Amino acid sequence: MIALKNIFLFSILIHFSCANSNKSIVYNPNTISKTTAFQKLLKRQGFVEIPSYNLAGLAEDKNLQPLISDESDSMFFKKDYMPMGKIYGVYKDTSQFFLFITFYAAENYIPAIETFDKNGNRISSEQLLVNGCGAGCGYYCTMTAEISKDLSFIAKDSVLFYECDSLAKETPGTREHYVEYFTGKIDNTGRINREKTKKINLDP
């Protein structure tokens, strides 16, 4: 009788152990507070100076960290762009908010600026992209995105375009040469204020 009782108890222990081992671990954003998760993100990413050159060229830097390095980071960044997104860092000289410089994956990486309050609540965000550049015969384009230490910014597409004939030569009368751009500035509350896009024709 004792032997049967021991066998029964042993069977229960095996069943309980197997049931627990088969449970999948699902991330629950409520396991840590948003503020705690945000402090982890800040500590991991570190602080940087505002880059004094074209942000569009930074995306290929192999030292950039993934936009999402921890599951809790999904509280703060756009889920549609997470898998290939990158982060340049956090600007260290703002006292009222945190400014992140990020890159979202598309045909080309799109630089973006994003601001958060001290508790990790999003204040504002803006992709520094006008139209973007494609490729093709007679199409030449350069993207520029810059932000200054006074937190003003500009995004610009410089375009030279003409239609090609069957020999891939320029079709007379089709040339266009122009710049499209927008400017803006981050105010002292972290709000990003962007102006309307403007166009300047460069050819008479």
Note the topology.
Elements lengths: L1 H20 L12 H12 L1 E2 L16 E2 L19 E6 L6 E7 L5 E7 L5 E6 L11 E9 L4 E10 L14 E11 L5 E3 L3 E4 L3
Parallel strand pairs: 1-3
Antiparallel strand pairs: 2-3, 3-4, 4-5, 5-6, 7-8, 8-9, 9-10, 9-11
Report on this model:
The chain has 2 helices and 11 strands, in the order ααβββββββββββ. The chain has 204 residues and is an alpha+beta fold. It has one domain (27-201). The strands form 2 sheets. Strands 1, 2, 3, 4, 5 and 6 form a 6-stranded mixed sheet that branches. Strands 7, 8, 9, 10 and 11 form a 5-stranded antiparallel sheet that branches. The radius of gyration is 26 Å and the shape is elongated. The model is unreliable at 1-27 (pLDDT under 50).
Features:
204 residues, alpha+beta, 11 strands
Rg on CA atoms, Å: 26 Å
Instruction: Give the SSE order as H and E letters.
Output: HHEEEEEEEEEEE
User: What shape does the CA trace take?
Assistant: elongated
Major beta sheet summary? 6 strands, mixed
Oligomeric state of this protein = single chain
Domains, number: 1
Unreliable parts: 1-27
Strand segment count: 11
What fraction strand? 25-35%
In DSSP terms, counting alpha (H) and pi (I) runs of 4 or more, how many helices?
A: 2
How far apart are the termini? 104 Å
Please state the structural category. Answer: alpha+beta
- Give the fraction of residues assigned to helices: 10-25%
